[in-house]
## 1
Amino acid sequence: MSVVAEFTVDADQFQLGNTLSGVPGITFELERCVPTGDLALPFLWATTEEDLDEVVETFETQLLDSQYVKKILALDKIKNGIFYRISWTDPTEDLLDAIITSDATILQARSEQGTRWEFSVRFVDHDKLALFQNTLADHEVRIHIDRIYTFAEETDHRRQFDLSFEQREALVLAVQRGYFATPSKVSLDELADELGITKQAVSARIRRANEKVLETTLLSSAVAERGGD
């Protein structure tokens, strides 16, 4: 059963983080990837709210001066950011090496200012997660685990949309009675009467339930698409 670990790590604990830190005003986000020994070259978004040209010039100069960077290639440019492909030297015995050793997949990695990173990494099973943690210990890399969960648990959570019983009941009834049809086949007063609550209460439950469902489906889809799905 696959398992996902969400953790934070300081930039000085791994080569990539160390190389990218030091240029203020940049937010970094790695594209979803499966690092391998000769493909430790994450695709990287660098975005900023400051003058893009000035920030990028400083950032690229720093990268090219690094002993760990072989080559950088700007693939796309948008109003406030640039998408890079970066070729690195062989990974050192650090976080990235531990991810490679455990055959894990980086689902998401993000850092504001480059000083501290947030990672979401998927492992094929708990044994691989244990291997990852043991490798980190061998390399003396310190991370902070925020959450560990199975893929099945997360999927079930998303299916449930984190709705309360009352919210689910109101939303299901609204759909069944045709409240969202055009024109609507039932009024809030009628739904309220059927549930034995006030019109204001049923309206609030439907609105909040809708919000949770839309957040779960649309926002999680947007994250997945950015991650390369």
## 2
Amino acid sequence: MIKELISSFVRKLVDKPDAVVVTEIAADGKYLIQVCVAPHDLGKVIGSEGRTFRALRAVVGLLSKHSHTDVVVDIAE
């Protein structure tokens, strides 16, 4: 559910939604969600002073607390 939410959110931000790849890696009960976008869309996902990405992390943090899972979101280069 969180992976799909992140994918939907990021696809609406970028110019090339087809280039968005969201992968989920699970290990020891924790989840790492990596977001990969086209290089020229990276700034749109990060936002001014990182505000957009911090907001996304905040939403994911609330959802992961609610579902009692540990989720980390990162941008893959």
## 3
Amino acid sequence: MIKLSDYLHAVGGSNLTPAIDAEEIGITDGYVCDMLSDVMGSAKAGQAWITIMKHLNVVAVASMTGIPAIVFAKGGVPEAPVIEKALEEGICLITSALTPFELAGILYKQLEN
């Protein structure tokens, strides 16, 4: 398990929900997907979800599956209502300029060490 804050630093990301302390969130695995139904059926609690989708439904799916953090690739930033809902649900939102492939590779390396 790694701390989300370590991953955030490694990917040069920004915490879009600073009221949620990334230092306190443990990440056990990752999931990369842009299809909500697949995430609902296959993602596991404790995973960081890497996606380019920025709409409100990503927060609902993360909440249902126990995902503590959503990582928006390619510099994606959701609108304010999405961030507000994530705060209500206690889900940390991160944005990074890196591609999903790069984000997944860095997460994989960190989890393997």
